[in-house]
Specification:
Strand content: 5-15%
Largest sheet: 4 strands, mixed
Shape: globular
Helix content: 40-55%
Distance between the termini: 62 Å
Number of strands: 6
Strand order of the largest sheet: 4-3-5-6
Radius of gyration: 22 Å
Length: 490
């Protein structure tokens, strides 16, 4: 056996962690192009739409009930509830609500759902500032927006350094993994921490990074795992703010570092790309390439849905006779196949599992011709029409989709009992390139909140978010998020 030899240690000079933290500390809102600021505000609106819509679905109610049973009342808003909690539990639940319906934003190359990480972190951090002993600071909308932008930019860069979807293919829930540095960076910016203290916060967040993708099968906890990043990132920034020291050079360390450990077992060469942590900071804005979902399911399968929808439009008569289907084959990228291509054998599936499984989602599109939240209500999960088709659908890995721009695409091949075959390839689904427009996001916001809160409250939230940089005090917006909302599945 060869003796253990340490790789070359992290450099003594300013490595990528220090460079990133210097950028975070020095960034001003005027450094960010106006159109990027505007896009960030619409992403906030999309995240709040998902939170309000998700707050009262059954699995969110179960999460809130569990936490409220053991946590003492606090001062921090829980979206859609009259009860308040401490900052960490409020961040956790608010994140779980944003993730609850699988309708929240995502970055398709470095997969994470940033709204469910950054929004809960910053809402709780804002209230931490307001209640801090001896503090007279009021968090304004411009400071909130700037901190949100920091989180939007840091998360994908951490993910790209880990080779993006490769982490998902290894079985990690990559969003929470990438989300810990994003949440701590955003909170550090809101707290006005200097570069060194921000590095402490990010180091402490990265050592708490977690999330196993086995959460997608039968449990409810998949909804909460991005919340681990929100909670732990906030916790780390609070510790750092008070002088508690964290891990330095967390992205460079070859032994026990963030990049080196989360790529163990990867066959990618190189296993990780340290330079991606700071690549094009201030010139390339990941904020512009986040995707906002049109379907209530895992983003990687949206290409499959649209391929089937295209076939339904092209062959209306043939595709209306589902009894004639003999076999459906769906070809996917490596990360999406690993994440969503598993055989659906348990009937009925949980809501979580059904929203993650490509075969089940494809059957839903074939039968229902839409994949929205109503298709995953408890009463819909044991449909005989859908389950008759599920065994006919299989998934395969297709290396041609293993590129950044095709990663969520699909090749669907449908064979009928008489031997006829129809096929459709979707390289990337709608809302990818270009992403959905700001107006489309606003329309989605209004659709998701329709019927679950009154129009006056909805309009006040919308106005506050879209004029965020002009708000003198964020307290009014946060107050609007408190109070009960309806259940969209009722």
């Amino acid at each position: 056996m060869s003796p253990l030899v340490h790789e070359k240690e992290a450099p003594n000079g300013p490595g990528v962690t220090t460079q990133l933290c210097d950028w975070i500390y020095r960034l001003k809102l005027e450094d960010v192009p106006v159109h990027v600021q505007t896009r960030a505000k619409y992403l906030v609106l999309d995240g709040l739409a998902c939170a309000l819509a998700g707050a009262r679905v059954p699995w969110s109610v179960d999460a809130a009930k569990a936490v409220l049973e053991f946590e003492e009342p606090g001062k921090h808003v829980v979206i859609g509830y009259k009860e308040k909690l401490g900052p960490l539990s409020a961040a956790l639940l608010n994140s779980a609500f944003i993730q609850a319906c699988e309708l929240d934003d995502f970055h398709s190359v470095a997969p994470l759902h940033s709204a469910s990480i950054i929004l809960p972190t910053l809402l709780a951090a804002t209230e931490c500032e307001a209640s801090r002993l001896g503090s007279t600071r009021t968090v304004d909308g411009a400071s909130f927006l700037l901190a949100y932008l920091v989180g939007l930019e840091v998360g994908p860069r951490a993910g790209m350094a880990l080779n993006g979807g490769e982490v998902l293919a290894l079985g990690w829930h990559c969003g929470p993994i990438f989300g810990h540095p994003a949440a701590s960076a955003a909170a550090s910016k809101l707290f006005c921490l200097d570069s060194s203290t921000t590095e402490d916060a990010i180091g402490m967040a990265c050592t708490q990074s977690c999330g196993l993708m086995a959460a997608q099968y039968e449990g409810m906890v998949k909804r909460m795992q991005h919340g681990f990043a929100a909670r732990n990132g906030l916790f780390s920034a609070l510790l750092a703010r008070s002088g508690y020291k964290g891990i330095k050079k967390i992205f460079e360390r070859p032994y026990g570092g963030y990049l080196s450990m989360f790529t163990m077992g990867s066959d990618q060469k190189p296993r990780y790309q340290e330079a991606e942590v700071v690549k094009d900071l201030g010139s390339y804005w990941h904020t512009n390439v986040y995707r906002t979902k049109l379907y209530a399911c895992v983003g990687g399968v949206h290409g499959s849905i649209e391929a089937i929808a295209n076939l339904q439009a092209k062959h209306p008569k043939r595709m209306s006779d589902l009894s004639a289907l003999a076999r459906v084959t769906i070809r996917l990228s490596k990360p999406v196949f690993a994440h969503c291509g598993w055989p659906a054998t348990e009937r009925p599936m949980t809501a979580t599992g059904s929203q993650m499984n490509c075969a089940y989602i494809a059957a839903v599109q074939l039968v229902e011709r839409q994949v929205l939240l109503a298709q995953f209500a408890t009463r819909a999960l044991d449909s005989s029409d859908i389950w008759r088709l599920v065994p006919l659908i299989s998934c395969e890995h297709d290396p041609s989709f293993d590129t950044p721009k095709r990663g969520c695409g699909a090749h669907v091949r449908i064979q009928f009992a008489d031997g006829e075959v129809v096929e459709e390839v979707v390289d990337q689904p709608r809302g990818f390139d270009p992403p959905l427009t700001n107006e489309a996001i606003k329309e989605k916001w209004r659709e998701l909140t329709d019927g679950i809160l009154d129009t006056k409250r909805r309009d006040e939230i919308e106005k506050a978010v879209l004029t965020l940089e002009g708000l003198g005090d964020l307290g009014g917006l946060i107050k609007l998020l408190a109070g009960e909302v309806g259940n969209p599945l009722a």
